[in-house]
Amino acid sequence: MSERTFELEVLRYNPETDREPHFQLYSVSCEEEWVVLDALNRIKETLDPTLNYRWSCHMAVCGSCGMMINGEPKLACKAFLRELPDRIRVEPLAHFPIERDLVTVIDDFIGKLKRVKPYLIPKAEKALTEGEYLQTPAQLKKIKQYTLCINCMLCYAACPEYGLIPKFIGPAAIALAHRYNQDSRDGGRAERQQEMAAALQQVKIASTVDWYQEHLMPWLRK
Amino acid sequence: MAQEIGRRPYLREVPKVRWFFDHPRYLRYMARELTCLFIGAYTLLLVVGFARLAEGRAAYEAFLAALKSPLGVAFHVVALGFAIYHSVTWFNLTPKALPVQVGEDFLPDWVISGAHYAAWLVLSAGMLYFAGAF
Amino acid sequence: MTISNKPIVWGPFAAGGTVTAFVTPALIGITLLAALGHVPDLLDYERLHAFAGHWLVRLAIVAIVFLSLWSTAHRLRITCYDFGVRADTLVATVVYAVAVAGTIASIVFLARL
After folding, report:
1. Does domain C10-111 have CATH number 3.30.230.10?
2. Quick one: CATH architecture of A107-215?
3. SS3 B101
4. Are A35 and A81 in contact (CB under 8 A)?
5. Closest CA of chain A from C60, distance in Å
6. What pLDDT does residue B3 have?
7. Chain C partners within 8 Å of B119 (Cβ)
8. What letters, b where the CB count within 10 A reaches 16 and e where it falls short, cover A102-125?
9. pLDDT at residue A2, as a whole number
10. pTM of the model
């Protein structure tokens, strides 16, 4: 069990005292199997209890700990120190306003998820007596990939269009709408189209989906 | 309800023009988009070529001669590079844009891209042969 | 502001992107050979004149010209926005107008053959 010393350059921002964010350098000794989240926890426990950041599951399923690590949007619990250089720059997720330190304001993201009507809109009224909706494995597989989104917002941080045009509804919202549009039980495509129409750029969608599938979701199984 | 703490969210601005220098991925994206300039310019060149063809032999021969200039050759080489980059990025993207489900599973990406590449090679060879390039 | 998504604008762009991906490199190859001094047989004046006289060939040429120019225009419009140019309506009008003008020009020139 060997230790390695890392220099974490963390972007700090206290809305009550700071005019703008600034970097703070922490020198922390870490175990070789740790992730950036472990390093942040050690900093908070031993060096600076005022450091703020979101995290929860520590196993890349909750989507809470997204942040920029050396300029790449990553989950802090999935950024292995053994793959990183000695000096690590940690910043809040790009394209979101900073609330405090590494915590961002995610209201815009949540609002966009709601706007695409992420619930089944049946094609026709179906009485309970008619029984349940049936779905074949093939129909499930068609949407399965899009149900796996953990709302970690890394795709919004990666997306240059969202950074330039905040009105853009964004990759996760589009994937979510797609998840329902492609669901065999759903008939609400036209309703969702209204929201999508203002923000859909087909070329960008293809490139964004390609980008985020390739780089941010290596655990996606086809 | 907790007491309202002074909130003052800070938005980091994205540089409107130079954002794509921030990451190699963004640069490759911009290069891909800029392929359109060269493809568009080449297409306009073809339109001019047909104009010269319609004007008669002398005008057309002059057009061919202009192609042979250093600028003409340079433009072709650069345009060819960008056109190929467009083709490669387009074919690589197609499986993501048009997933094909056969039974339960989706066709692997390489099958769809590969089919495009194969068709592209065959078509290109056919076009060159038909034009009398070899 | 809205960047266009309407299928009628996007459709020719997607078709054009596909067409240019398949045929443009070979086309450039053909004229590149001419530029390098090895003029392919088809580019000989008489042969090209005869070839472009056929109505099916003319249709193909106009289709390729239109789709290529339209997809260029659409991509250029969006790229201008990426470069910080926010006057989308103006840019869109200019680029699509050039695409249409180029297409009309090709029709006119082919008709004169």
Report:
1. no
2. Orthogonal Bundle (1.10)
3. strand
4. yes
5. 25
6. 60
7. 22
8. bbbbbebbeebbebbbeeebeeee
9. 83
10. 0.84
